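Progress note, sequence design subtask.
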């Protein structure tokens, strides 16, 4: 599941990462990865210009939270 949004504890830092895909984009198999990346970029731009997560159309499970980061460290 991607990590998208402002990074907790780092003011002004935003991230959009975790779209898994291997190799080059030479096949229709990679279309879901590209769709996810390009579909989330407008939502991230909204947040970077003062919007909130609620202003985006992204699922809440994509949102970066301190809890999700802590789970990665465990």
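Output:
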């Amino acid at each position: 599941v991607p990590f998208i949004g402002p990074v907790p504890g780092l003011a002004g830092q935003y991230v959009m990462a975790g779209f898994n895909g291997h190799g080059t984009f030479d096949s229709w198999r990679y279309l879901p990865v590209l769709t996810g990346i390009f579909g989330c970029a407008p939502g991230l731009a909204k947040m970077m210009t003062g919007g909130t997560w609620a202003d985006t159309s992204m699922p809440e499970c994509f949102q970066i939270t301190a809890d999700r980061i802590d789970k990665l460290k465990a």
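The beta strands are 3-6, 14-17. Work on this subtask will continue into the next period as scheduled.
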